[in-house]
Amino acid sequence: MKRLFFALWPSEQTREQIDNFNQSLRLGGLRKVKSANLHITLLFLGNTDAKTGRLLRRMAENISVQLFELTFDQLDFWQKPKILCLTTQRYDAQLTALVKALNHIVEQYGMHTEVRPYKPHITLARKAQKLIDCEVQPIAWQVNSFCLIESCSTPNGVVYQVLKRWHFAA
Questions:
Q1: DSSP states of 111-168 as a string?
Q2: What's the pTM value of the predicted model, to 2 decimals?
C-alpha cells in the first residue's frame, strides 16, 4: 500500500518564491512545510494498492487540460486543520476541469474520496493558532502539468515523491 495523491508540483523558481515567503513568516510553534514538499493537492487518494495505482496512472493519461496560471495572493488560517496556507480567490476553469476529471476517474474505479468544495491552496505551516498579519506579494504559478505523488514517512518526517507527471497541451 502506498499513500497517494494527485497534485500540482511547482517549478524550482515558483517553489523558491513560495519558500521565501514561508520563511518570512514569524510566529512561534509553527511547523513549516519543507520546501521540497510544497505543492497544491488536487485529489487525495490515501492508502492505495499497487494494482489501483497502476490503473489510475493509465486512466489519468486521458485527461486533457490546457496550460493555465494561478496567482496566490492571500494568506489564510484554517482553524480545523490548524494550518496557514496561501490561497487564491480566482482561478482558471482549467483547474476546475482537471479536478473534475480526476474525481471522475477515481469514481469510475469505485474509490471514495472526500466530498467537499475544492479550494486550491498551498499549505505553508501546521500547528498554527492564528492568522499572521502580513503583506502577501502575489506569487504566479505557471501550471503545465500535474503529478501522482507518494507520501513517504521517514525518520526525518514526511517526504513527497513524484511517481508520474502528465504535461498539459500547449
A1: -----S----EEEEEES--S--------EEEEE-EEEEEEEEEETTEEEEEEEEEEEP
A2: 0.94
